[in-house]
Amino acid sequence: MSELIKWFEKRRETKALSTIQRHLTLTTGIVADLENAIRAAVRKDKKEMQKCIKRVANSEREADGLRRKVMDDVSKGELSPADRADLMDLVKRVDMVADWSRESTRVLMAIPMDQVPTSIKDGFIEMVQNAKECAISLQKCVNKIMTKPEEALQAADDVERGEEKVDDTHEKARILLGKADLQNAGVTVLISQLFESIEMISDSCEDACDQVRVIIVRK
Fold first, then answer.
1. What pLDDT score does 61 carry?
2. What is the per-residue pLDDT across 106-143, written as a single tens digit (0 to 9) for each?
3. Domain coordinates of the chain in residue numbers?
């Protein structure tokens, strides 16, 4: 078992670990709000979409603040330089989930949904729903490091399976987009960017879980 895992077990109530858990909860909520924003956009409820996007923006800023706080707390702790780097890298990778969710909302605001085919809209919803499931599994994965490390690896596998679902949806979406009779090239580009941004959410979840694996197996 790695020294960092032993540190988790002995110091579950430390300020740094508490902040990491708050950061995880906030990040999962950000992805959920992105899903709500996309659903609202698809049903042309602009007011609700804007409310959800505002929550994503505010939460993403808060997540950045928590990330910086973790970095500060860990830098002052008793961890070895290698373990400190591993933990900081994990937090940065989790933070990318929030960053890509915020980027997705920026693209979403620019898309005129009345010009988007229904099949593409369905693809948005399916993809972001799977990305949210990845974020939920990621939260379980990181929390398990602090309680039951052996179960963290199982949760990491769940994230990987979820990421594969997102990839499959993206592949189908590309085919649909290629067949769609869209008159505006700009709309086509924006649709493609939204799909790519959502995919990056799940990719970031997988990256974070890869770091969990590193932390668990490092001697």
1. 95
2. 999 999 999 999 999 999 999 999 999 999 999 999 88
3. 3-217
CA–CA distances in Å: residue 113 to residues 42, 45, 109, 110, 120: 6, 11, 10, 9, 10
H runs (alpha helix) in the chain: 3-10, 15-42, 46-75, 81-110, 118-147, 149-179, 185-217
End-to-end CA distance of the chain: 6
Cβ neighbours of 111 (radius 10 Å) = 20
Contact between residue 2 and residue 215 where contact means Cβ atoms under 8 Å apart: yes
The amino acid present at 205, given as its one-letter code, is C
pLDDT tops 70 at residue 3: no
Alpha carbon 138 to its chain's center: 8
Class of domain 3-217: mainly alpha
pTM value? 0.90
Kindly tell me the sign of the dihedral angle through the C-alpha atoms of 101, 102, 105, 106: negative
Q: Cα(93)–Cα(213) distance, rounded to whole angstroms? A: 13
Answer positive or negative: Cα dihedral of 28, 33, 38, 40.
positive
Which amino acid is residue 111, in one-letter code? Answer: I
